[in-house]
Amino acid sequence: MSFSSPENSSSQPRYVSASEISQYEFCNVAWYYQKEKYPRSRISSKRMAMGRNKHRKLEKSYVSLTLVVRIMVVALVIVVSAILLLTI
Fold it and tell me: Which pLDDT score is estimated for 10?
């Protein structure tokens, strides 16, 4: 999919990515503001920073949780292997 504005009709067509379409569908006003490089409001910037911090914390807890799960799986495999070896 491509489009070009009338004033840029001689330039290369601009292609729209699937993520841009998704952003537009989610909130066309936010998509437009980002496209036109409108500055964010102070409140919006604070909310974005809070969201980034929450995501970082969630990512850290997810990483530590997956590490614990991996250790538990390895321990379970060792225990099951030991039980099977003892029964032979």
Answer: 60
Indicate the SS3 state at residue 78: helix
Mean pLDDT by 10 residues, the chain (88 residues): 52 85 89 86 87 91 89 96 91
DSSP string, 1-47: -EE--GGGTTSPPEE--HHHHHHHHH-HHHHHHHHTTPPPPHHHHHH
Non-local (6+) Cβ contacts of 30 within 8 A are 23
Does residue 54 contact residue 46 with C-beta atoms inside 8 Å? no
Q: Please tell me the distance from the alpha carbon of residue 20 to that of residue 13, in angstroms, as a whole number.
A: 16
Taking the C-alpha atoms of residue 65 and residue 82, their distance in angstroms, rounded to an integer, is 26
